[in-house]
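Please, is this right?
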Amino acid sequence: MTVFLVIIVIALFAVTIWQMSKIFDLSRSSEEDSSQIATDKDNKTQAYIMMGFVVFLYGIMIYSFWFLSKLYLPEAASEHGSEVDTLMFITIVIIMIVQVITQALLHWFTFKYRGEKGKKALFYADNDKLEFIWTIIPVIVLAGLIIYGLFTWSDIMNINEDDDPMVVELYAYQFAWRARYSGEDNTLGKANVRFIEGINQLGVDESDPYANDDVITTELHLPVGKPVVFKFRSQDVLHSAYFPHFRAQMNVVPGMITQFGFTPSITTEEMRASEYMVDKVQTINEIRKENSIELMAQGETPLDTYEFDYFLLCNKICGQAHYNMQMKIIVESQEDYDAWIAGQKTFGASMTAQ
């Protein structure tokens, strides 16, 4: 009902504005020029507005880079991440150079060659040389960016087996993630959603001997400097595994297995101690402290102190609770990882206990 009333109010307001504009037109002096043909004065006014707009456009651009650059992600926490950031930086630089030049020329030409009485536009059919230049330059630039991106993508998708990568399955369902480690044999047991029953929430095949030493967890622990191959499965709908700090993302598709890999390069503790993250955490906690004062005044529970953690997110709108579909990631030393994984119960042990 409230929405319906708001729509009615907006409609009535629009009708009122329309009626006022008609009254304004009727109240104009008969001496005023009501012709729909643009005059020199109209063209001059529009030309100055165009120049003002390009100044406004550049002002917004400078403001965005100056004041919003702090919202960039910190240093990439994977070995390939720096290449992704470099590709992004090169792309932004190229786009900004082209944007600044073309917008300046577009608005300047609009101003300089505005319509004036007695001035006639030159008919210019074509110029093969100009067409060749503005065609071949974008082709060369885009080809360079695409080839560079393909090499980076290849590094992510094709993990060298000689590096003995760790194999981890990430299982997505509405609205959470589960991690399945491949155990001592570094081979994941077979799985199928048809096998989901009881505590076997991932549908792991109990008859597969490779599945006995698999370890299923709700947290993702990764040893720093160790290559990892991630294999993705979805139980229900299309999800997307998004690792923002590791500069990696992959769709998780029902009925098929997708994969990529990367090597973590910065531990969670190292990222927390970085200058960027220290400043960010301090700013967030100051905001939380101010908000907590208001909450406590209303008799509500104050906000907890924020501490940085890596997270695996879903980057597809997969349902009502999509915003809450995340998994904590802890990057740690090999010794700490070994101690953690040794304390986890294997799939075989869990099924035996059941």
About this structure: The mean pLDDT is 88. Helices lie at 2-26, 40-68, 81-112, 128-157, 268-273, 275-297, 334-342, 347-353. The beta strands are 166-173, 176-181, 215-217, 220-223, 228-234, 239-243, 248-252, 258-262, 310-314, 326-332. The two ends are 53 Å apart (CA to CA).
